[in-house]
Specification:
Nucleotidyltransferase, domain 5, 6-stranded mixed sheet, about 35% helix, globular
Length: about 325
């Protein structure tokens, strides 16, 4: 997609997460003009989002900027611009309705946050130039999206993002009965480490910090086991998806996916080994846009809202 510069025009982009809602005013060339963030743990996600959008609208008015669209990414299932789940944040109202009321006359698009990140990486980041991009978001949770010709495939119900709902390969852990997200996500790594040691840590980064010669022997041993198995599981499942989807490139996004840490190295090594049998297997690349991928993708959905859609449905109505 070509971003056409227009004097004084911006779109509102929102990237809502489990801990904060980050918003920005973004010019058509992709540059960020102003940002605003609020924590999202204590209040309903829809109300926090509305406050962020209202603050950005006030900033745009003060700076003489015209808002031409709004794009928002949320960590839930989304279909046709409507949230269909409340698994991460406590939504009391559809945020798209609230934003449309706060920005009268401005087109508003609502998408899943992983599709926003995937869209940005496919069009502007590590997957740029590839016809098909498999984007894996590996952070506190686990999700994925396939992007074809710069457009996200949503699935019939908007649920073609549920990487974390897959099982854990038996060759990695035959005893595990939960899903992949509870095993290998940042939260899952911390939970499994706590179950083994009784030591509660916030997330995967803190667990990996124990992989040092100075760490307690028992804690370090448990950390090595949990981190290695998580990396093997993600690398193996990524190779499964390649077998099904045959993408040009696999992009690892999210906090863990872009961390360059030992767990991503293990996943990449496993993925490469399993794909060695393919004569031209796709590479696994770290996302190039970092923490701004979600915001930039949300901005792209807003710009697409004035033209081509950001997501391609793959089925009829329920």
């Amino acid at each position: 997609m070509t971003l056409h510069d227009q004097n004084g025009s911006v779109v509102v982009a929102v990237d809502a997460g489990g801990t904060k809602v980050l918003g920005a005013l973004v010019r058509p060339d992709g540059s960020l003009v102003r940002e605003h963030a609020l924590p999202s743990r204590k209040d309903p996600g829809s109300q926090v989002t509305l406050r962020v959008v209202s603050a950005l609208a006030a900033s745009a008015a003060a700076d003489g900027l015209t808002i031409t669209g709004a794009g928002c990414g949320f960590p839930e299932y989304v279909r046709d611009g409507r949230l269909t789940a409340r698994e991460v944040l406590d939504w009391t109202e559809q945020p798209g309705d609230l934003i449309a009321a706060a920005l009268p006359g401005v087109p508003v698009t609502v998408e899943s946050d992983v599709r926003c990140g995937a869209l940005a990486e496919a069009r502007m980041g590590a997957g740029r130039g590839a016809r098909s991009v498999l984007y894996l978001s590996w952070g506190t949770g686990l999700s994925s999206t396939l992007v074809l010709d710069g457009v996200c495939v949503t699935g019939r119900r908007g649920e073609a993002i549920a990487l974390g709902e897959l099982g854990v390969p038996s060759e990695v852990d035959s005893r595990w009965r939960g899903n992949l997200e509870r095993y290998a996500s940042g939260l899952g790594i911390a939970e499994r480490f706590a179950a083994m040691t009784g030591l509660a840590l916030p997330g995967a980064r803190e667990v990996m910090a124990l992989l040092t010669p100075e760490a307690d022997a028992a804690g370090a041993a448990a950390a090595r086991e949990v981190v290695k198995s998580a990396g093997l599981a993600v690398g193996t499942v990524a190779s499964w998806l390649v077998s099904l989807l045959d993408p040009d490139v696999v992009v690892l996004g999210g906090g863990l996916g872009t961390s360059g840490s030992v767990v991503t190295a293990i996943a990449a090594e496993r993925f490469t080994a399993l794909n060695a049998r393919r004569p031209c297997g796709p590479p696994m690349l770290p996302a190039a846009l970092g923490s701004r991928a979600g915001l930039l993708g949300a901005a792209l959905t807003a710009l697409d809202g004035c033209g081509e859609p950001a997501s391609r449905p793959t089925g009829g109505p329920l």
